[in-house]
Amino acid sequence: MNISLTIICMQPSRIAKFAAAATYESIATMIRASVQRQRPSFALPRTFANWQSPLWKIVLVLLLAVVGYVSAPADLLPGDYTVSITVEHEDTTYSIPHSFQLGAEGDVATPQTTQLGRYQAVVEGANAVSYQLGQKIVYRLQLLDPAGQVLPLPIHAVSSIIRGPDYEQNVPASEGGDGWVTFSMRMPFKAKVTTALMLAIAVLWITELVPLAATAILVPVVAVLAGASDAQTVLQPFANPIIALFMAGFLLADAMRRTGVDRRVALLILNHASHNPIYLMLTLMAMTSFLCLWMSNTASATLMIPIALAVLGKIPEESMPKGYPRALLLAIAYSATIGGVGSALGTPPNMLAMALLNQYSGGNLTFVNWFAYGLPVVLIMLPIIWIYLLLSFNVDPRRMTLRIDPAICAGELRQMGPLHNEQKFLLGIFVLIIGLWLTESVHHIPPAISALAGVFVLFFAKLIKQDDLNHINWNALLTFGGGLAIGTLLVDTGVSDWLALQLIGIGTLPTYLVLFLLSGVTVVIGAFISNTACAAMLIPVAIPLAQMLNLDPRLLVTIIAISCSVDFALVTGTPPTMIVYSTGMFKVSEIFRRGVVVDLLGALILSFGVVWIWRWFGIVVF
Description:
25 helices, 6-stranded antiparallel sheet, alpha+beta
């Protein structure tokens, strides 16, 4: 039994791959059997007879690409455009004109005054707008009374329509400050190509027709060849500082594994934890989430699940409640998933949200700022998941009198002996890096530079070897770079603004219902594609949508970014769930049944509860 436990503990990644392959093959076998029992009257070509054939996936990719190309807006044609701004004030409707020429050299925005009975309307906007990628059409309005004082205008009382050659678009208003009402929209430029590319990439990510990294590499290739971007712009996301930060994180985690620091830290915490299994479960959950603040949720689950299996191996089976082992393992997987939202480093959507907010909404979020968004979610969800799993697996704390022998961890620690010099040096460097991350606002050293500096020192001290570079998850890094690239394309080509305009109708709903709907849709989409891909598609839309709905962009973006990672239902949804499924102790339906409840709880808590904490902290406004 100890040998089998050791195998399970030390190689969860191989077991995950084996379990996934076995599940995939069993599903394929059932489909083939069903096809044989209900064979149609006509015979398909052999290459199409298997529904799992790559040819069917290629057909789906091409079909969705065509749908995206046809449904997306056409590029604006150079020429003369008119804007009709409608204002409802004191039971009177006023129409204010504005015009600009698209394709001419950009002009400085100049104010133009129009007399409206007793009032004056001041419209400020450029008379000429250049025709190029990422171009934004912006104009604003101010209403003055007879004394020249600015009159406050409610947003719902102002609207505008842009008309031009074969083009007409309603553009909603947003508050611009100092009494100005602002209208803005990125013009569609190669929007059809970008929309087709987005849907094709989504299908490729879902079907895994080619590796995720290969799909990510396809983004800049298609974008440049189709003229939707230039090489420097679309390749820049692959060298984003976030990529460097993740790479350094992989190397630091590998150094901790090599020296045994990760296991020693875990055992030290367990040695001082309660040895009542009920409270030990909560301790393991908290420790798993804490580790996710400094490493990926996958790495945290990979470390903690073997420790949990070793703990279970020390409990006599006859005295252990039937559902406790499964409750414990699933609790660790869920803790790793939810713990990943606590830190910017825990899961890619967090960093993606920070990068796009800083780039397109004028934010200045740092590594430390994300703790205020993510930690409240973790602190609320952890005890709820703990109680829910105990109830779900019928583990009654009142009848759980068994206590685990405290020697379980003490013996392991004695075998390890005292900290040796390499472990002390690594811990010192790691603490120094964390200190630099937490004090970024003082010294202004970016987190990626702090991490890379620490990695260099560890290379010099030979605690990180050259071979460790081969252990970096390049697939994850390239996929993340592709997600950033597609997100940048969606914004620059005007697709994100166009999609936001299609969703503008939800602005009539209460704010909390809007947040819940967006969170729910994100959770559903994130269940079928990677959380990085989900964030790359939805966050670029959230930024203009927030501006059009007059909501804080940080509110919508963080809701969507966190919802991308709140996926507990599907085995393939997150790596921690797949790792725990690979232990062979769960059925897919069992995880799905319990995970759906946690998904719903997460969306409700995030939309109706955590936002109040963010508002109280002053990090969002609504």
